[in-house]
Amino acid sequence: MRMSKRSLGRKVRSNKANCWVEPSFSNLLAGKSPESKGKVGKGPRKKKGETNSSAPRSSSLSVVQEPHQSDHNVPWVDAHAPHSQAELAVHKKKIEEVENWIRTHTDPTTSKGGIIALLTGPSGCGKSATVQVLAEELGFRLQEWTNPSNVSEYRADPEAYRQTFEPASRFNGFLSTSQTGLFQEFLLRANKYNCLQMVGEQGPKDRKLILVEDFPNNFFRQPGSLHDILRRFVKTRRCPLVFIVSENLSGDSHSRLLFPKEIQEELSICNISFNPVAPTTMSKILLRIATLEAAKTGGRLCVPDKDTLDILCSGSSGDVRSAINSLQFSSLAERGLSLPKKEKCLAVLPGKAACKRTQGKKRSKEKGPGEAEQCIGGKDVSLFLFRALGKILHFKSESPRKLSGQHKLPPHLSEHQRHSLLIHPELVVERSHMSAEFFNLYLHQNYLDFFSTVEDVARASEYLSDADFFTGEWASRAVMAEYGSSVATRGLLHCNSAQAPVGFRPLHKPNWLIINKKHRENCQAAQSLFINFCLTPTILQVELLPYLAKLSNPMRNPVDNLTTMTGKIQVETDHLLNLEALTDKDPGTLDLDDEVEGDQAGALSPPREAGAELPASQPQPTTFEALMKEEDLLIEEYDSE
Amino acid sequence: MSLWVDKYRPASLGKLDYHKEQAVQLKNLVQCGDFPHLLVYGPSGAGKKTRIMCLLKELYGAGVDKLRIEHQTIVAPSKKKIEINTIASNYHLEVNPSDAGNQDRVVIQELIKTVAQSQQIQSSTQREFKVVLLTEVDRLTKDAQHALRRTMEKYMGTCRLILCCNSTSKVIGPIRSRCLGVRVPLPSTEEVCSVLSTVCKKEGLSLPSELARQISERSGRNLRKALLMCEACRVQQYPFSVDQAVPETDWEVYLRETANAIVSQQSPARLMEVRARLYELLTHCIPPEIIMKGLVAELLSNCDGQLKTEVTHIAAYYEHRLQLGNKAIYHLEAFTAKFMAIYKKFMEDGLDGLMF
User: Fold this and answer.
1) Which of B96, B268, B284 sits opposite A536 (nearest CB)?
2) Where is this region: Disordered (chain A) (predicted)?
3) CATH topology of domain A2-273
4) Do B81 and B158 belong to one domain?
5) Which residues pair with A209 in a beta bridge?
6) CA neighbor of B199 nearest in space, from B18, B1, B10, B43
7) What is the interface size between A and B, counted as CB pairs within 8 Å?
8) Tell me, what's the ipTM?
9) Cβ within 8 Å, pair A444-B276
């Protein structure tokens, strides 16, 4: 009964919310027995393994067994939640990192610096499970915040609920406190008060971790209010606080909105980012679960073969939860409906068929590229920008020996003969979640490193020029952008006839946006300052300003700064070569429209104050240096692990 | 202090230094009363603007010298606010509509309407029309040019237009046919020299004729540039010496170095360096077209005769692309890469030829 209710509770969230209007002690009181504690603390948020992980390990076996005997409705995700570090799907180093953090920051003797950790990563990569397991192993009590819902609050006191809606009532209006207020109260209480030591509790569990996965909605609108609360929290610094933020790949990451760089530095928040689960780990876990389940059902459920598991792994794109779910579903379908295996794939998307093809030569040879098989519940595959660029730039094509089967081009075109590609460029661009134009910019920034001859570069750059030409007309841009990216990506792939020796090459963010912005700013500044000369912009920039810079009798006014800036080219300091490295975790941030720069512009440097506001005392070179320093800092921040 | 260019700018048609017959003709044009729309065109630095201002002075007297800079905000039908700077006197209004970018049509219509709808107060003592001076007409969008054509007809009674541009090739036929075309050619080298020496004399300096000649040649007969160069020479070294190096602008030097870098090595890594240099030029407000033009000129001087046609061809191709496209760097880089490929092939062929 309890379990089935909980499986429904995924969306309803009533359990927890009911309790929430009570002072937060009730949570702790409820935690006196392992079972009920698990229920209250973890019920509504159904992350993998939350249910049982906090139960003492001695009883864990029975907990696993019990639901199976009662019915089959328990999601395997919950039934097979990890209980120890070994069972976690997360990389050992990552677990260690989190463990270290928890150890150092809870011990009052060693604790210094931040008391807040921020775990980020794609959904289903085991962030919450890691925290659960570690808390369990290190002997921490987890206290989790869940967003309260107003309705249930009133349900606790129907009289008050009715009153608020009665027109004659004095209290015409909601009496509820804002979520922000509640959150603040929660933090305060959780920080201040320990739970009562109950009889029958094994060992002292007075150390606790506060876990926040669910953010009050208001914080997304006003991240500042969260920051204020956190600042106050940090001052008292008693309990470590762990935030978990799921990131998606399309770039609009919450972690950046809620925890901007400044705040992370100010509060010395420790940011630990998780990677998607590796396919090998994933298939191990799936195999283990499948074997366990098969053993339990006594052979009615057979272990799926390796290929099926592989498909499940690849379909989930590093999301353990979704992989286990689809494993359960697929095995159910097989047994219950006894479908032939081929037909089990209900949803076959054309995109998936192609994505199959990209998954290594081994399987695609066995199955043949035409066989479009995809597991149920497979996720949309998406790529980090870094990977997407890598797929185009370090492209893979089929091995030459397979060539014999292909039809050859006629002799006069033989130089254009290429092996067929193992990737699908349009798909790669689509999965990078970037606009085609920005993707092209990224390609343009980085393609030169991957070419070895000038002839190839000449042709490749021509394709890039073509691609830009496609999107030149704004009216047709929306339609043509895809063709543009197709031309650019395929052009680059085709032109790279002699791939430069493969190895790791750093990728960089495109310079064009910042350059373009500076160009426009400088032009505007020049025009507004030199309007007295009544010159057209071109003449002003090309003739007047450079010579004004030459006429070295300085006019000692702000104008002069600009002249030296625009008119003189500092040959020796090539500050442009300070490239911002792009790392694998960097989401593409430039989704905004073309000439309006994306977040990056904001992230880089404050736009130089153009025009008359330029302080006269400030000589230009220092400004340049300051700029450079800022960029250096940024590069460090993007260091990959 | 003001620049020599501005200080010694001729202020009346009679004082112009060259193309004197044209000055006389313009004077007659104004005096005979009826005054058509004018389209003044000619290369940069030939003195178009000077001539126009002289003409206005002839028309309205000293009042046109009292200029004020106005910052106008125009609301487009799409509710978008366009901000544009105008320079105006009581009698005329000067505006560069291409500052408004895509919205230049609205600027043209609204500004001319405002000017044309207000009558002159003392039409007895003054002319009964005002003048609107539009600069860089060749950079107007087609849309704006058509709007201009209609506006021209509509407000002929109260307003005359003087259009100023470098080339008429981008001005649509209907506008050209509605205007009296006045071409202002570049001054000859001798004329530039004489202007330079007059200016220097007024400054109390003695300019050797050789240096004057050198400056005028280096400036490409662009008088504005020549005067700026001359002043820069003065700052650099005085008294002048005959074989003094004429200072060049930094971007020209930088562009030449870039061209040399291209010629000296052709490789993807070098292209990367060139890209950084192109970016640097762009940040210093050098328009992409100018970069392209300068680059081609420098590269051509390094090329063998038979290569020149090919290089010019690809330059024209990518210059066109530059106009049509969105992001200049793609096209500049494509041109550079193409040049590198051609040049490399040519050099290799040349080496092969030497071997056999």
Assistant:
1) B96
2) 23-76, 586-623
3) Rossmann fold (3.40.50)
4) yes
5) A142
6) B10
7) 180
8) 0.85
9) no
